[in-house]
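Weekly structure sync, notes
Attendees: PL (lead), two postdocs, one rotation student
Agenda item 3: pending single-chain targets
PL asked that the sequence for the first pending target be pasted directly into the notes so everyone works from the same version. It is reproduced below exactly as submitted, 185 residues in total.
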Amino acid sequence: MLVVLSDTHRTEGTGLVGAAADAVDDADLVLHAGDFTTEAVLDAFHDVAERRSAGSQTQSDDAAADLRAVYGNRDSDAVTDRLPEATTLSYAGVRIAATHRQRGGATGLAMFGRERGADLVVSGHTHRPLVDQAGSVTLLNPGSHADPRGARQSFAVLEPTEDGLNGRLTTVGGETFDRFTVENE
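Predicted structure, written out during the meeting:
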């Protein structure tokens, strides 16, 4: 399972509570779309991934939880020195491009995804959850699990299928409020 988070905006700790904490505990991979804010928060996420990996006796080393992340516009220099502005990865045959934000809104994000050959583009910045499947690339903003700014505290979960990924946007209280699929090409 892939868990997608963004916009933590804390000075310490992960801010993970409820269903978000449970999902990260069960994840194979955690993807964070930026704005940890401080190096202590980034380190806390790495610690969670390492604890998950160390506690996973039944999984192979390849399947242990991992953290992939990009930096955001509110991250300290210590965070931006450690993370890329954008990254591309594959999960369950789906090519995923991630960035915190992209000029040009949805069009800019779609272009960013096409440039990277992505099926899914993950971004953050707005603190508002959104899935946009209108174009050739699915756009996903998981919202914020810790600092929602007028929206609900949310994150995304994507689970492998034969054809790609089944996704859902979920509140930290465990309520699923949107479902989507991303097919691998």
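Discussion points:
- DSSP finds four helices and eleven strands in the chain.
- Residues 57-64 have pLDDT under 50 and may be disordered.
Action: rotation student to compare against the earlier draft before next sync.
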